[in-house]
Design goal:
Layout lengths: L1 E6 L5 H5 L2 H8 L4 E6 L12 E2 L9 E2 L1 H11 L5 E5 L8 H10 L2 E6 L4 E2 L9 E3 L10 H12 L9 H4 L18 E2 L2 E2 L9 H19 L1 H6 L4 H16 L1
Parallel strand pairs: 1-2, 1-6, 4-7, 5-6, 5-8
Antiparallel strand pairs: 3-4, 9-10
Bound molecules: 6-chloroguanine.
6-chloroguanine (6GU) binds next to loops.
Length: 243
């Protein structure tokens, strides 16, 4: 997999590309990362990359020329081109899987400042937002997408660790604990130390339902529960409403 970022701030990606799992994926040869400096493509004699919006309005708008020339310099027939913008559908785990299974060459365009010339969208395959808030630029959003895609590339992390996670099965992940058993009087739930696999499975499933009920009821509405899950959820609901 190859991920190319087009940005006015390539230096923002230096730490990101050279840390943790991203760095590992790069050294294992599983993912190739590049940040391309869009400003170096400008044909403006003062090196400008933006100007005031026609019709008036706040802020500066990125010219199409530097971004599209940068895109042309890296795009191949295989490339899937994505514009990072808050005016777009929200990125999800499902979208992450879809991108990793369908494309091996992904290009992410980052607009900075207040916006970009709408005609840039004629050169992209899709638009992605990472959530309902406004960032100063698409760079941190592109890092979010790059991170989420990387960990789904085969060989980057153990496959098991992606199966039970939040969103993979439509529920939030259950709480987890490690040593010590007693930390400042807060004790790990006894069942987890019992070695009783079936009881542990039920306990974790119930706590997963509890987190989802507390924080993301919308996920429960979208998901068909098994009979076992419905029983556990009913217990959770009465316990939560007693508090
Ligand atoms: Cl992709 N860009 C910006 N500037 N803000 C955002 C975003 C993207 N996604 C959510 N907020």
């Amino acid at each position: 997999m190859k991920i190319t970022i087009l940005t006015l701030f390539p230096e923002m990606f230096e730490g990101f590309f050279n840390s943790s799992i991203i760095k590992k994926a790069k050294y294992k040869g599983l993912v190739e990362y590049r940040a391309i400096d869009v400003r170096s493509f400008t044909e403006n004699k003062h090196n400008r990359v933006d100007d005031y919006p026609f019709g008036g309005g706040q802020g500066m708008i990125m010219f199409p020329q530097p971004m599209i020339d940068a895109l042309r310099s890296v795009k191949t027939e295989k490339s899937h081109v994505i514009m990072m913008t808050p005016a777009a559908p929200t990125f999800t785990q499902k979208k992450a899987h879809e991108l990793v299974s369908n494309y091996e060459d992904i290009i992410l365009l980052c607009a900075h400042y207040e916006g970009y010339d709408e005609r840039i969208l004629d050169y992209v395959d899709e638009v992605i937002s990472i959530g309902d808030y406004i960032l100063t630029g698409g760079e941190t959003a592109a890092m979010v997408v790059t991170d989420a895609l990387t960990r789904l590339v085969k060989g980057v992390i153990t496959e098991d660790s992606t199966v039970y996670e939040s969103f993979e099965n439509g529920l939030l992940e259950h709480p987890q604990y490690t040593r010590p058993v007693d930390y400042e009087g807060k004790v790990v739930p006894e069942i987890l130390l019992s070695g009783h696999h079936e009881k542990i499975r039920l306990f974790n499933l119930k706590e997963s339902l509890r987190k989802t009920y507390r924080y993301r009821k919308d996920l429960l509405e979208k998901r068909n529960l098994t009979e076992e899950e419905q029983v556990l959820l009913n217990e959770v609901i009465s316990e939560e409403n007693e508090k």
